[in-house]
Specification:
Blueprint: H1 3-29, H2 34-51, H3 56-82, H4 87-91, H5 93-116
Helix pairs in contact: 1-2, 1-5, 2-3, 2-5, 3-5
Amino acid sequence: MNAKLNKCSWIIHLFAIAHAISSFAMGQWGFDDEILLSLLTISMIVAVTQIYKLPLEVSAALAVLCCFAGYYLGTLGGKWLTASGFDFLIRYSSEITTFVVTEILGWAATLISAKRK
């Protein structure tokens, strides 16, 4: 694994964990998590794209696109997990969905950034 991909891997995994923890904490406290998760997503995308030295305007555009995609995929994933009927999946559907969607978005941004060079 090359150095850039290794850095991206660490960033993506750490942000996915941070997303899941944030989603859990905000749910426990009764707060909406959309703003916090959007800020974390933007930070992750900018960090990943800066490893590949993409221009900031490209990073910002990709971050906004990922926020919309994350909201859509998160909502869809949450509905799917809730409909699964498994108590564990229903209880932690927000956290599971948030983690998986963050991983998908992070790796998509990495792929786009690596191909852009």
